[in-house]
Structure formats: structure tokens, C-alpha cells
Give the backbone structure.
Amino acid sequence: MKRLITYFMQGLVFVAPLAITIYIIFLIFDIIDGLLRNVVGTWLGHTVPGLGLLIIVVLLTLLGLIGEYIVFNPFKRIGERLLNRAPLLKVIYTSLVDLFSAFVGKEKKFNKPVLVCINQENKLWKIGFLTQQSMDEIHMPGLVSVYFPHSYNFSGELYLVETSAVKALEMPPAEAMKFVVSGGVTRVN
């Protein structure tokens, strides 16, 4: 009997969070759709199921557009002016902006997965992402810049390595990142 209660509790632990989440989403949608259904029903003379959801999506999109151009951009310009006056903060801010845009921005930087031999004697290889094809700008010819993300973490290290120690990986960048971040647990397709 005790074992049955344990199994019941484990089942409850598995199902309860999902069921509660679905129920909350349903309630929110039902309330908002119900309010909009009444308003639209009085305008059109009859109700249209799901029209409330469409109106919510359109209103949120318009709100995001207005927020981007009327609210966010002016504050962003003011913030950038303030950061230009504080050199240390400017360096930190621009580095973080570059890092986040490298992962999720329009110009993703981690799109060239590579394999780097970090110890030839023991034949140790490490997966990373090529971020600079050449280090000539800092007077280090023959070197490339490779970013190595840490496993189970969203941090990493940047190494400058000889070009000859780097091999391109024939795999999608997202798969390489998942493989490294998961500590090699994720299967590579």
C-alpha cells in the first residue's frame, strides 16, 4: 500500500506542473477571449470563436512596435550617451552587447564550429567556434581566434591558436553548441 501511495505521488509530481500550466493558460485565454468576444459580438452582431486570440496577437505586436520606436529607442540613445561619458562602463556594456548579439543577434558570430588540437602528445581535441579568421590586426600572423564555451554553463574562454591546429567541423553551429554545452551528452545528428 505504501508503494502505491509513493507511485501515486510520483505521478502527481510529473503531471501536476504541466496540468496547472495548461489550466492557467486556458483561464487567461478564456477570460481575455471572453471579454473581447463580448465587445466584438456587440460590434459585429455575432461572436467569432478565436477572434479574441487574433486581436490579442495583433495588439501585442502593435504594442511591441510602438514600444520599440517610441519608448525603447529614445531611452537607448540616452543610455548610450551616458555610457560614452563613463569609459569603463562603456567597455563592459559594448562587450556584453557584442556577446549577446553573437549568440542571438542578427549577425550571429558563433557560426563556424571547429575542432582544435590542444595537446598533440595526448591527442586531445576541443570543440570551439572560430570568431576571427586572422589576428593580423594585433600583429599575430598565423593565429586565429577560437571561442570555447564551457559545458553546463553559458561562459567560455577565448584562445588564439595556430591555424594549423584548427579543423573545420562539418556540423550545424547549433548542434555543435548543444553538444559542447551539454558536456557531450547530446547526440550529434
The beta strands are 113-119, 124-132, 143-149, 156-162, 166-168. The first strand starts at residue 113 and ends at 119.
